[in-house]
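## retry 2 of 3
previous attempt timed out at serialization; input unchanged, resubmitting
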Amino acid sequence: MEINMVNYATPQSSLHQLLGSAPEAFGNAAVLLAGKKGKQLVDDIVEALARNTKPDRRTLRNLVQLHRILSLDAIDEDPEAQGRFLMIAPTDPVVEEICLLSDSLLDALSVYASLHPSIDLDLAA
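## retry succeeded, writing output
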C-alpha cells in the first residue's frame, strides 16, 4: 500500500519572508544603532518567526521597536544610540542600507496590518 503525503505548507507572512531573507543585515544594522540590545531584539524576532507561522503580540511589538531603531525614531530617548549614530559618516553606504531595511520593514508591517485589521501595530509611533 502506498501513502501519498501532501505538504500543506502554510504561507509565510511578508514579515517571515523579509526577516528570513536578511537576518544578518537586520542584525548588523541593529547592532550599529542599538548595540547588544539591538542584536538581542533581532535574534528574538528571528527565533519567534522561525517557531511560529503567525507572529504573536510580543514579536509584533519587537518588530515595531526594530523599525523605530532603524528609522531613528527612538534616538532622542537613548544617549548611547545618539553616540553610535554620530559615529556613522553620512556618506557611508551603510546609511542607505539601513534606510532600505527600515523601508522594507515598514512595508512588511503595513501589509501585515492591512491583512489583520484587528491588530493595532501603532506604526505612526
